[in-house]
Structures are given as C-alpha cells and as structure tokens.
Automatic annotation (TrEMBL):
Location of the region described as Disordered in the Swiss-Prot/TrEMBL record: 26-45, 87-106
PANTHER family the UniProt entry points to: NUCLEAR FACTOR ERYTHROID 2-RELATED FACTOR, NUCLEAR FACTOR ERYTHROID 2-RELATED FACTOR 3
A Gene Ontology molecular function term of the record: DNA-binding transcription factor activity, RNA polymerase II-specific
Biased composition (Basic and acidic residues): 26-37
GO cellular component term, pick one: nucleus
Compositional bias per record (Low complexity), positions renumbered to this chain: 88-106
InterPro entries membership: bZIP, bZIP_sf, NFE2-like
Ranges where the BZIP domain occurs: 2-49
Protein name (record): NF2L3 factor
Organism name: Oreotrochilus melanogaster
Length: 106
C-alpha cells in the first residue's frame, strides 16, 4: 500500500509538472506574439517619427530664409516639452550644460 501511494504521488507530481510545462509553453507563445506586435508597432512609430522629422526640416528656415540642413542640426525635445533645433556638432557635455542653463533661466 505504501509503494502504491508513493507511485500515485509520483504520478500526480508528473502530471502536475506536465500541466505546468503546457501552461508555460502557451504563455511563451502568447508573449512571442505580443513581442512581435510591439516590434511592429515600434517600427511603425519609427517610420512616422522619421516622416515627421523630414517634414519639420523641410519647413524650417534660418534667419536668412534658407532651409535648415538636417545633416547639421538635430531636433531636441526636453522633458519640459520644449523643442530646440541644435547643431549636431555639440558634444553631449555641451548639450547637458546648455540644458542646465536653459532650465536655470526658466
């Protein structure tokens, strides 16, 4: 009887583990699908952002009315919602210093 109970517990443990494996496999497939959907969504957002970036630079003009060169400038959006056009040749430390100065002025 003890051996029979032991075999029964072992069989129940195996069945429980098989159910867990099945559940985890379903969860894995679900997460793969979700990841794929998010990747497509991110790709679409990147395309929209690039289009917006091109549209903005197409419309921007300098003080003399000439188009702003997108290869020389970047659009910088700060955490407070302000948008700046900055030269690309500024180093990160210069950008950080400029951002600090702007925040101090506000």
């Amino acid at each position: 009887v003890a051996a029979q109970n032991c075999r029964k517990r072992k069989l129940n443990a195996i069945l429980s583990l098989e159910e867990d494996v099945s559940s985890l496999q379903r969860q894995k497939e679900s997460l793969k699908k979700e990841h794929s959907q998010h990747s497509r969504s991110i790709s679409q957002m990147k395309q929209k952002l690039n289009k917006l970036y091109r549209d903005i630079f197409r419309r921007l003009r300098d003080d003399q009315g000439r188009p702003v060169n997108p290869w020389k400038y970047i659009i910088h959006c700060s955490s407070d919602g302000s948008v700046l056009i900055m030269p690309k040749n500024l180093t990160k430390s210069q950008q950080k210093q400029k951002n600090k100065n702007e925040q101090n002025q506000n």
